[in-house]
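in:
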């Protein structure tokens, strides 16, 4: 049942070119905008480019935002159209449904990560110490994190407009406190504590570990475990909050 749900979602995406473009093209285009923002910066000899630092973080942030938005709206559309209620009237378990969605979007997230990372490395010449494979893995994990949180938040929305309203509540605080603008250890104590319980902070920290070290560190492994735990917790909570009947 999980695989059939995954196949159904992938077939739906295949018939929706705009969603495919949103997943595969938009993160790469946004990454290009970041590159052009810093294209004319003047660097001292031996200094790394700002794009190599900021662009690397964006490889985790952009997939997270895109997949959160796409998943929450898609699941809400399933509910309002009555498709979700019909599916849950069958022997299909709620966990099969949600994990099937997560698997389908994870496959798309992997393709998204490959496109965005390939653009960063081969088109814009991103230079970091670590292996690109770790960047792809973290990018996929953050995208799946966006899927899990999108599925969870969709249970509390009744319209697509309400689903979008979760962006400033769930997504934007994580972007502000993940270490992109100010290093987490330089924040005041309250914001640092909040940052330490937000999953995107660990994804960004993992990307920073990849940028600084040519081999995987224990901190990188810990960051990956924490993000994966948040993904699993988000999916489990979403299965508990998923209603069998449309209100």
């Amino acid at each position: 049942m999980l695989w059939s749900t995954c196949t159904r979602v992938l077939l739906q995406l295949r018939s929706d070119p705009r969603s495919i473009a949103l997943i595969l093209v938009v993160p790469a285009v946004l990454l290009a905008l970041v590159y052009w923002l810093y294209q004319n910066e003047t660097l001292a000899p031996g200094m790394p480019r700002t794009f190599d630092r900021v662009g690397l973080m964006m490889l985790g942030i952009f997939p997270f935002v895109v997949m959160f938005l796409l998943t929450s709206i898609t699941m809400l559309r399933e509910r309002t159209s009555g498709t979700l209620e019909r599916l849950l009237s069958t022997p299909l378990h709620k966990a099969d449904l949600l994990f099937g969605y997560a698997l389908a979007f994870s496959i798309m997230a992997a393709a998204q990560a490959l496109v965005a990372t390939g653009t960063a490395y081969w088109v814009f010449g991103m230079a970091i110490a670590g292996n690109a494979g770790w960047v792809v893995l973290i990018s996929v994990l953050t995208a799946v994190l966006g899927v899990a949180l999108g599925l969870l938040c969709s249970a509390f929305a009744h319209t697509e407009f309400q689903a979008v309203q979760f962006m400033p509540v769930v997504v934007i605080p994580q972007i502000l406190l993940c270490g992109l603008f100010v290093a987490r250890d330089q924040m005041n104590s309250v914001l640092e504590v909040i940052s330490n319980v937000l999953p995107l902070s660990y994804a960004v920290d993992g990307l920073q570990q990849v940028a600084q070290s040519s081999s995987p560190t224990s901190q990188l492994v810990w960051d990956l475990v924490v993000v994966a735990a948040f993904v699993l917790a988000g999916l489990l909570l979403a299965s508990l909050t998923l209603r069998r009947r449309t209100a």
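note: Residues 2-37+49-241 form one domain.
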